[in-house]
Amino acid sequence: MNNSNEQLASQFLKTCKDAGESEQKVMERLTKRLHISHNTNKNFDDSLTLGQRLADKIAIFGGSWTFILIFIGILFAWIVLNTLILANKSFDPYPYVFLNLILSMLAALQAPVIMMSQNRHAAKDRAAAEHDYEVNLKSELEVLALHQKIDVLRDQQWSELVSMQQEQIKLLTQVLEKNKTS
Question: What parts of the sequence cross the membrane (predicted)?
Fold first, then answer.
């Protein structure tokens, strides 16, 4: 069986003129009967460093309604505090220069963290897509192997049918000859 898998894999590689690294991995796994079943998400998440996990958590929180609502609340409180409550002694009077500085710093820090998280998620998606491709390729090879097995069985049945028909013709010929002689 292993030899037929190798033949099938080499036959498939001939039809795919530019077989890449993932195709070679699938062929190797198929011929050795290794399973392509690993949890891409778990493997990827296990390899993250503490900083990468923290960046992901910050990006998740920074893109949530909770963050937006808290941020709107803080902005509203800042404006109310500096405009109405501390009218004569406000530390950041109306055009709110200090508030703009803080918002700019927050955006300057938050944007790269979100981009790092997005880049990691893109890499995770690429790994998942590569895994899906390998599984699909292996499935295609398995289907080809099943087709070959069915073809072999069909050929055997045809040859058995032909031999049975030849035997029937032989018997009919004998019956006809007996009828002619009698």
Answer: 58-81, 93-116
Query: 152: buried, middle or exposed (CB in 10 Å: 19+, 13-18, 0-12)?
Result: exposed
For the chain, give the longest Cα–Cα distance: 136
Cα dihedral 85→89→92→95 (10° resolution): 80
Read off the pLDDT band of 93 (50, 70, 90).
Answer: confident
Contact 114, 63 (CB under 8 A): yes
Q: Residue 173 and residue 170: Cα distance in Å, rounded?
A: 5
For the residues 153-164, what does the mean pLDDT come to? 96
| C-alpha gyration radius of the chain | 36
pLDDT digits (tens, 9 = 90+) for 57-72: 998 998 899 999 999 9
> Alpha-carbon distance 4 to 162, whole Å?
27
> How do the domains of the chain map onto residue ranges?
35-181
Residue 43 CB contacts under 8 Å (≥ 6 apart), including other chains: 127
pTM of the model: 0.59
Select from 57, 99, 52, 105 the least CA-distant residue to 79. 99
Task: Tell me the C-alpha to C-alpha distance, in Å, between residue 17 and each of 13, 23, 35.
Answer: 7, 11, 25
Q: Tell me if 129 sits within 8 A of 44, measured CB to CB.
A: no
